[in-house]
Write a structure and sequence with these properties.
By secondary structure, the protein is mostly beta strands. The protein has no helices and 20 strands. The strands form six sheets. The protein has a five-stranded mixed sheet with strand order 1-8-7-3-4, with no helix packed on it. The protein has a four-stranded antiparallel sheet with strand order 9-10-14-13, with no helix packed on it. Strands 12-11-15-16 form a four-stranded antiparallel sheet, with no helix packed on it. It is found in: Cell membrane.
Length: 228
């Protein structure tokens, strides 16, 4: 399939026809379609101000014999912008997870590398199979006053970027929402509802770390909420 050539959106791209001389008679195709000779400088292919639609397979053939001399895959994209990183503990006191995404697509492959440091100790962030943009860290000690520092670096063929977070253990604790929430009428009392729920299944130890619940409600015809 030949090499892969990565170029930025808006760049001017020059492709050589392998080892062919500059003044050799050649024909270029993009995804099997002939390219007009106006884009040629001798045997070189010149693409001005490339955009995403010009990604594809480019092939160069010798003169009228149509012997394939060179082939490359052009991938047009952008360097990564600063990634968005979020860390949260939804299963305290077991640990926490971090997840990330890019604010805008790059249209080419990206590699993410995450490092977690607790004080001076490097910690392993185990990648989750699903979703792929998430990993989790196990707490080594509870009630630690030492801050965590998480750095996420994203790299592609056109550049790299990073973002970092620093936080205390307790600052990222956030349970998942309650489960099995049910509201049903109370017999013989049309002005009352009975609401029941369960702890989130992800919360591992509600005995040692009990959760507090807040409920709000309103009739649809009113804008203001009542709180319990």
């Amino acid at each position: 399939d030949g090499p892969v050539q990565y170029e930025r959106v808006g760049a001017d791209v020059t492709m050589k026809c392998g080892s062919m001389d500059w003044d050799a008679a050649v024909t270029w195709t993009a995804n099997g379609t002939d390219i007009d000779e106006s884009h040629l400088n001798g045997s070189y292919l010149i693409l001005k101000n490339v955009d995403l639609s010009q990604s594809g397979q480019y092939s160069c053939y010798e003169g009228s014999s149509w012997h394939l001399k060179y082939q490359t895959s052009l991938r047009v994209g952008t360097p990564p912008k600063e990634p968005v990183l979020m860390c949260r503990s939804n299963n305290y006191p077991k640990g926490f997870y971090c997840s990330w995404h890019l604010p805008t697509p790059t249209y080419i492959p990206n590699t993410f590398n995450i490092s977690v440091i607790h004080g001076t100790k490097d910690m392993v962030c185990e990648k989750d199979a699903v979703p792929k943009n998430r990993c989790h860290i196990k707490y080594l000690q509870l009630f630690s006053t030492v801050k965590y520092k998480v750095t996420l670096t994203v790299t592609n063929a056109l550049g790299k970027n990073y973002t970092a977070l620093m936080f205390d253990e307790f600052a990222i604790v956030k349970p998942d929402p309650p489960e099995s929430v049910v509201a049903k009428p109370v017999p013989n009392n049309p002005r009352r509802l009975e609401v029941s729920w369960q702890n989130p299944s992800s919360w591992p130890d509600p005995e040692s770390f009990p959760l507090k619940f807040f409920l709000r409600y309103r009739p649809l015809i009113l804008d203001q909420w009542q709180h319990v």
